[in-house]
Amino acid sequence: MPTFTAPDGTRLAYRIHGRGDPVVCVPGGPADSAYLGDLGGLSAHRRLIVPDLRGTGRSAVPEDTSTYRCDRLVDDIEALREHLGLARIDLLAHSAGANPATQYLARYPDRVHRLAMITPGLRAVGVDVTGETRRELARLRKDEPWFPAAFAALEAISEGRGSDWDAISPFFHGRWDTVAQRHQAAARPDNGEAVALFAAEGAFDPQATRDALSVCGTPVLLLAGEFDVNSPPRSVAECAALFPDATLVVQRGAGHYPWLDDADRFVATIAAFLAAQPTLLT
C-alpha cells in the first residue's frame, strides 16, 4: 500500500483502484477508507486515490493528536496532491470527509478542478440538521418491519435521551439487507480519539468558509440520498446554494451510501460530472 508523508511527519497510506485520470476520494468517519471500496465500480472510469485518514486504516497515529481536528486534515489533502504531482485535483468526499474537502476548496480554490460531495457532512459550512428534519425523513420508512424500534431510537437520540446509534443503522441504507448490514459494520469508526477530536474547538469557521466559497467558480456536485437521515436532501440543497456553480442530485431510493443502493445510477452520475474535462497533470 503506497504512502506519503504529512507536513508534521506522520506517515499516511492510500489505496489505488482502477486506471485513468486520478480522483482523490476523502472518506468519512473518520474511518478506515476500505468501506468505500471502489465506489460501486467508479474505478472503471477513473483511478481512485483513497487515503486512510490519519490514525485510521494503515495510516500512522500522529504524535500530536490535535492534528485529528478537521481543519488540520486539509494539510494532509494538500500533501497528497503534492505527492501525486498534480497541479489540480478532482476531489470526491463522502459524509464527514466533505468537511475537510470543503475547507480545502475554500483555502486552495485554484488547486481543485472539480469537487463531488456524496451525502456530505455540513458542519464546515454551518448548515444545521434539526431533529425534526431527521424524523420527518425517517417517517418515509414507516412501512419497513424494522421501523418501530429504529424510529424510537432516533427519537431518543434527537431528544438527548439515548445514544443507541446501532439501532438507527437501517435509516442509513436504502435497503436494510445482509449486504447493508455487513457494510454498516465495516464503516464504523474504530479510532474513538480521532472521532472525538475531529470537531474540536477551532475546527470550523463556517462564515469564513462560506465567504471563500461564494467567490469560488469550481464546479461542485452534491449528491444526496432520498432517505438519508444523516444528510437530508433538504439540508444538502441548502449547502448547494452556497456555491456559485453547484449541481444538486437526489438519488432516489438511496441512503447514506448511495453506491450500495444503486451502483449503476451512482456511477453514471459521478462519472459524467467528473468527465467534463480531464484533470491537468504537472
Order of SSEs: EEEEHEHEHHHHHEHEHH
CATH superfamily: Alpha/Beta hydrolase fold, catalytic domain
- Unreliable parts: 278-282
The CATH architecture would be 3-Layer(aba) Sandwich
The structural domain count equals 1
Strand tally: 8
C-alpha end-to-end distance: 23 Å
Report the β-strand fraction as a percent range.
Answer: 15-25%
Sheet having the most strands: 8 strands, mixed
* Top-tier CATH class: Alpha Beta
The shape is globular
Strand order of the largest sheet: 1-2-4-3-5-6-7-8
What name does the CATH topology carry?
A: Rossmann fold
Continuous helix count? 10
Summing up helix and strand content along with how strands pair, one would put the structural category as: alpha/beta
Oligomer status = single chain
Rg calc: 18 Å
Helicity, in percent? 25-40%
